[in-house]
Amino acid sequence: MSKYDVAILGGGPGGYEAAIRCSQLGLKTCLIEANELGGTCLNWGCIPTKALLHSSEVYIEAKGAAEFGVNTGAVSFDFTKIMSRKDDILMRQRNGIRGLEKSHGVEVIKGFGVLTSSTTIDVGGQIIETDKIILATGSTPARPPIPGMDSINVLTSDDIFNLKACPDSIVIIGGGVIGIEFATFFANLDVKVTIVEMMPEILPGMDTEMKNLLAQTLSGKGVKIVTSAQVKKIESNGAVSISYIKDGQDADVQGAMCLVCVGRRPMTREIGLEAVGVKTERGFVGIDEHMRTNIQNVFAIGDITGKVQLAHVASAQGMIAAANCAGKNERMDYRFIPSCVYTSPELASVGMTAEKATSEGIDIRIGTFKIAGNGKAMVIGATVGLVKLITCAKTGEILGGQILSPRATDMITEIAAVMRSEGTIEELSTTIHPHPTLSEIILEAAHDTHGLSVHLPPKRKK
Q: CATH classification of 154-262 is 3.50.50.60, yes or no?
């Protein structure tokens, strides 16, 4: 029997980072993982998706290079090489994580762990004894009860990474973040894409103006978006046919394959939670602000908690859990979490949308700026984009921000940092931004909150 201070079940971004932090805090730590280190984020999510998207964006840029005075000749892509480059990136990152764990003294145990008590874990017959446990087993793509889900050429967001050839057409069920990102990837590669979404709009919860602009750019790439559509069944006979109901009428759409992206479910089955008495609801593990479950020495982080299913949230939760395993008293704050969609252009958001703030009865001011008025955007050929800042009219507190722009996902942190520091719109508007940069659109939106952007025409007085 091996004895540890902390045993972590699951080696995704939350689990592997928590393991390193536990070790940094002087705790003897083991990390148990049945598959590859890095979890969903590295192996079937964030990193491979962005690797594919970047390749498709390079292809788009190469096709438009003549506009910048660069003659490339005929441009084509090699789908096999796009996928193999993605695999090379994953392998390097897995090896990097493995090396980090070893250098920090974390013992990585390969195998499927099952809790046998609140202090013991069975890993294929090897019994791990530990004072504290952090559950970080992640999530897997949800498989809705649609007839035909198991048909040939019907893939989940995990399966798609094993594609050997690029299809000439694809139907994507689900217009959330995952579906929209894959729609962008395939559309960039000249694939005919149709999105079928059950809700009235794509990207539920995002700012309406922003996602409408994004929908327009997708339409410009040839993507067909069908909203308020309830899928009835999937039929596959070489090609795939998806039947759905919209506005009370039956309809269908065909594609070479179908990608199903309708959310993710927690991977909490058969890991011994019931035997130990860890409480769950719909499969999600209940936790408090310290990351503790109802069992005092058992913590949970990441997708299985049902809070916010994002890799950076899992990592933040992991840091909190590790600190509390070491006897500290840290709490998780979910107020300032950036959300990112890696489309072209990117969409990023933090805090409240204008719709949300208004629905809560808050008197707000809104500052906006289109990237068409930004010098750096003109230099790189970006024409579609917008930044929006939502502030409290009474106090100047920044309540939220949304950016649709190249590098939006890199820039959103500035807004989040000001919000977390309880900064005001005045402090943001007096922060000197370097020129020429895309980040100046944030400064201009801050100035526009009070009608003082010098790069906008004067607003008419009511």
A: yes
Q: Is the pTM of this model over 0.90?
A: yes
Sequence-separated (6 or more) residues with CB below 8 Å from residue 92 = none
Answer yes or no: are the C-beta atoms of 132 and 297 closer than 8 Å.
Answer: yes
List, by residue number, the catalytic residues: 435
Q: Which CATH number fits domain 345-448: 3.90.1170.40, 3.40.50.1970, 3.40.50.300, 3.30.390.30?
A: 3.30.390.30
Sign of torsion over alpha carbons 377, 389, 302, 6:
positive
Structure-token pair, residue 151: 């048909």
> Tokens for 123?
């890993």
Parallel/antiparallel/unpaired status of strands 29-33 and 107-110: parallel
Cα separation, 357 vs 453, whole angstroms: 23
Which residues of the chain does CATH 3.50.50.60 include?
2-140+265-325, 154-262
Q: In terms of Cα–Cα distance, which of 328, 345, 339, 204 is closest to 263?
A: 204
Using DSSP, state whether 213 is helix, strand or coil.
helix
Distances (CA, A) of 130 to 4, 30, 43: 5, 9, 28
Sign, Cα dihedral of 353, 356, 359, 360: negative
Q: Which CATH superfamily is domain 2-140+265-325 in?
A: FAD/NAD(P)-binding domain (3.50.50.60)
Q: pLDDT per position in the chain (462 positions), as tens?
A: 689 999 999 999 999 999 999 999 999 999 999 999 999 999 999 999 999 999 999 999 999 999 999 999 999 999 999 999 999 999 999 999 999 999 999 999 999 999 999 999 999 999 999 999 999 999 999 999 999 999 999 999 999 999 999 999 999 999 999 999 999 999 999 999 999 999 999 999 999 999 999 999 999 999 999 999 999 999 998 899 999 999 999 999 999 999 999 999 999 999 999 989 999 999 999 999 999 999 999 999 999 999 999 999 999 999 999 999 999 999 999 999 999 999 999 999 999 999 999 999 999 999 999 999 999 999 999 999 999 999 999 999 999 999 999 999 999 999 999 999 999 999 999 999 999 999 999 999 999 999 999 999 887 543
Give the position of tokens 């069975």.
Answer: 122
Segment (H or E) for 266: strand 264-266
